[in-house]
Amino acid sequence: MKALxxxxxxxxxxxxxxRLVARGVIVRGFSRQDHPAxxxxxxxxxxxxxxxxxxxxxxxAGCELVFHVAAKPGIWGPYQDYHRTNxxxxxxxxxxxxxHGVARLVYTSSPSVVFDGHDMEGVDERVPYxxxxxxxxxxxxxxxxxxxxxxxxxxxATVALRxxxxxxxxxxxxxxxxxARSQAGxxxxxxxQRKLIDTxxxxxxxxxxxxxxxxxxxxxxxAGKVYFISQDEPIExxxxxxxxxxxxxxxxxxxxxxxxxxxxxxxxxxxxxRVTRNPREPRLTRFVVxxxxxxxxxxxxxxxRDLGYRPGISIAExxxxxxxxxxxxxxxxxx
Length: 335
Description:
- The protein is of the alpha/beta class.
- The protein has helices at about 10-25, 35-40, 55-60, 80-100, 135-150, 175-185, 200-215, 235-245, 260-275, 285-290, 300-305, 315-330; strands spanning about 1-5, 25-30, 45, 65-70, 105-110, 120-125, 155-165, 165, 190, 195, 200, 225-230, 235, 255, 295-300.
- Helix 2 links the parallel strand 2 (about 25-30) and strand 3.
């Protein structure tokens, strides 16, 4: 079998690729940049832009299974950039799958597609999309997710997964940003209420994607469905952040500011960046403030029942592995 993984050089994409290779699957990758690590794994790599329908079609041709992991992340930038990658790119994947007779499509979504700025405590997949989004990323991911679910048919079985806050060894996004801001003294707790969140270790997230692919077929219970996936270990948000920072050898967050002040500062940063047309992400946005002041943990019953999903690596085990990887990287660099 040949499988395509978009975003194959990224954090989650690479973890999925490694599992597929270990299974003996012929893997093809698609990403914007070249990744030598993929060639070392024997992966056939296609380089291109998801917004380019012809490039996407070339990558999909000859595959029987597609993992669509790639997306434009972040919380700042022109809407058209997010739409081109996250919405148009997903539409291009669906069209190419239909044209080339791909039987299964596993899509990586995000719990942010249903975040309305309020606590999400034990919610399941029945929670609706919000009427308003505070950032372009969740808005465009929600549109893309809906395209994928509507595309489910007897010819193309589709499923969407919503992993929350992926972390672990090899993280090139979440932990480096947290550590850099912590080192610069820019991190503050927002508010004093204890809010619980779900997270997911990258290996658990990758395994969930393979479980979904294994069970995906036109007549299966997972076809046309969406699933939250997480550690199923809700933890206080700042405790988790500090444990990640400790694993990275970075200072933990001790000082705090009130939520109203954080929202005011975020509004100021956003306004300044818009007026000055600064393309860089502001130090703080209202979307991030709301994320850091609300609970985000989810009901795993559907994933357990339909996917057979059980987190194989606990938070405690994952943090041990992460700290060992960080320590090894530093020793290799002579620190």
